């Protein structure tokens, strides 16, 4: 909380819904449904961008740098959008929903353009646009649940988000394979971006816009309890410099729980980023035996890698139902540690598998870890945040996701070239090592008593 924010302003920025929150199943369903579309965008990107880059001529050690757009846009966009959305109120559209709509429109347009890239610079540029647009929608969604639900219901709320994230990723990740094997979409010329990928991105654009708009139209936000005090605080923090000062003040006043979770997040997401960067191409080259992107086995391997991503996302979907009771009995800290260890085991096992079908078993552990990663840290974090600052702190929390991704983007190409001999599978296994470290660190986190009760 900034030093200039007094108790009146704090009360003013606390939504009425926090006191008497809408906690029935369908209310939580509606407020979370937009994540189905958001994950369509992320799922298509994670499963296909490295391959798109290699189709356009990138070498394995060049791929991390080309992914720099993803974390860097998050680093810049999320705290800014979080701060602005904290200071937004419209009687008709509420606080977070205007950002949902803007992000949905821009993301859908970027998804349509991406698979039509004709050069590396074009694909990299469109990734900047796509990631910035997705972040405009996604950041307020995290604060949305904390706005509308009381402490006791937030585990259910974030678990519902995990459910939709899993469901969206299942369909998005496996879609190119489904279009080839179920619908008979013809293959493209060797070495070019497949028509199945292009069609998948078009479907993703429609899904993104439709799912986000469903949440916008079915969920209402409550006005600040004291609108006059809210407007005074908004006026005090108006302008770029005032906003920047408030973000920096919030960073200096970061709660202890958030600081401890920072190390957990950085290790977790470094591991995940290693997987997303290289899993699909590792399957194509190390399991299917493709020699280069013009080899027909390369497309087969990339599509099967997408199926594997779909399986771990399906596990995420199913496991999301079990997370709330597991967290209630074991606590979110122990639950998250166990889930991260399951993910580490899944990634490590990939290196000894030669039969493609067995990769699906490895993805069970990854799906369990992913379900916990997109819910348990936010459960532990949410009750440690000061009222009225949820958006900006959720944006700052994203720093601990994007910083390791930026480090990987800038430096992992050197590691690939000098230490790992451009072995994509070794990079995937390295991701598992970082997940083990994250599991050890999470046990040091001080969890607020409201979450463990």
Characteristics:
453 residues; mainly alpha; 74% helix; disordered N terminus
What does this structure look like?
The protein has 453 residues and is an all-alpha fold. Helix content is 74%, strand content 0%. It contains 21 helices and no strands. Helix 3 (34-55) runs antiparallel to helix 13, helix 6 runs antiparallel to helix 7 (120-148) and helix 14 crosses helix 15. The two termini are 25 Å apart.
Provide a concise account of the structure shown.
With 453 residues, this protein is an all-alpha fold. Helix content is 74%, strand content 0%.
Protein topology:
Layout: H1 7-12, H2 25-32, H3 34-55, H4 63-66, H5 69-86, H6 97-113, H7 120-148, H8 154-181, H9 195-218, H10 227-236, H11 240-252, H12 256-287, H13 296-319, H14 323-330, H15 332-349, H16 359-373, H17 376-382, H18 390-397, H19 399-418, H20 424-442, H21 449-452
Helix pairs in contact: 3-7, 3-8, 3-9, 3-12, 3-13, 5-7, 5-11, 5-18, 5-19, 6-7, 6-9, 7-18, 8-9, 8-13, 8-17, 12-13, 12-19, 12-20, 13-16, 14-15, 15-16, 15-17, 15-20
Shape, please?
Answer: globular
Helix/strand/pairing class, anyone? Answer: mainly alpha
The end-to-end distance, rounded to whole angstroms, is 25 Å
Total helices: the number is 21
Percent range of helical residues? over 70%
Element order: H for helix, E for strand: HHHHHHHHHHHHHHHHHHHHH
Query: What about the largest sheet?
Result: none
Total beta-strand segments: 0
Mean pLDDT, nearest integer?
A: 86
Low-confidence stretches: 1-22
Strand content: under 5%
Our Rg estimate from Cα atoms comes to: 21 Å
């Amino acid at each position: 909380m900034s030093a200039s924010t007094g108790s009146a302003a704090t009360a003013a920025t606390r939504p009425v819904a926090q006191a008497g929150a809408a906690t029935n199943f369908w209310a939580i369903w509606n407020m979370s449904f937009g994540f189905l579309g958001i994950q369509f965008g992320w799922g298509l990107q994670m499963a296909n961008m490295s391959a798109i880059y290699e189709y356009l001529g990138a070498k394995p050690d060049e791929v991390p740098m080309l992914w720099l757009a993803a974390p860097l846009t998050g680093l810049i966009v999320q705290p800014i959008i979080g701060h602005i959305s904290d200071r937004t109120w419209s009687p008709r559209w509420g606080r977070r929903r205007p950002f949902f709509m803007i992000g949905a429109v821009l993301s859908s347009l970027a998804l349509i353009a991406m698979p039509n890239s004709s050069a590396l610079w074009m694909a990299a540029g469109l990734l900047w646009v796509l990631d910035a647009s997705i972040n405009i929608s996604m950041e307020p969604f995290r604060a949305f649940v904390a706005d509308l639900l009381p402490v006791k219901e937030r585990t259910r709320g974030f678990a519902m988000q995990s459910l939709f994230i899993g469901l969206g990723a299942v369909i998005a990740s496996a879609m190119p394979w489904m279009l080839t094997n179920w619908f008979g979409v013809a293959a493209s010329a060797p070495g070019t971006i497949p028509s199945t990928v292009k069609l998948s991105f078009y479907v993703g654009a429609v899904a993104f816009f439709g799912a986000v708009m469903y949440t916008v139209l079915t969920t209402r936000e409550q006005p600040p309890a004291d609108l006059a005090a809210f407007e005074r605080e908004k006026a005090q923090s108006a302008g770029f410099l005032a906003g920047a000062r408030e973000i920096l003040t919030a960073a200096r006043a970061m709660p202890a729980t958030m600081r401890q979770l920072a190390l957990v997040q950085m290790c977790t997401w470094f591991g995940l980023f290693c997987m997303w960067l290289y899993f699909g191409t590792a399957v194509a080259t190390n399991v299917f035996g493709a020699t280069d992107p013009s080899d027909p086995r390369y497309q087969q391997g990339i599509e099967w890698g997408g199926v594997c991503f779909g399986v771990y996302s399906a596990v995420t979907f199913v496991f999301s139902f079990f997370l709330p009771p597991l967290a209630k009995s074991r606590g979110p800290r122990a639950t998250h540690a166990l889930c991260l260890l399951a993910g580490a085991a899944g990634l490590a096992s990939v290196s000894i598998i030669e039969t493609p079908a067995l990769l699906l078993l490895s993805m069970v552990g990854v799906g369990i870890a992913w379900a916990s990663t997109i819910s348990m840290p936010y459960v532990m974090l949410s009750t440690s945040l000061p009222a009225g600052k949820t958006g900006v702190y959720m944006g700052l929390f994203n720093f601990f996701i994007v910083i390791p991704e930026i480090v990987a983007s800038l430096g992992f190409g050197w590691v690939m070239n000098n230490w790992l001999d451009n072995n994509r599978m070794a990079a995937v296994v390295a991701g598992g090592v970082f997940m083990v470290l994250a599991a050890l660190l999470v046990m040091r986190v001080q969890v607020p008593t409201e979450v463990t009760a």
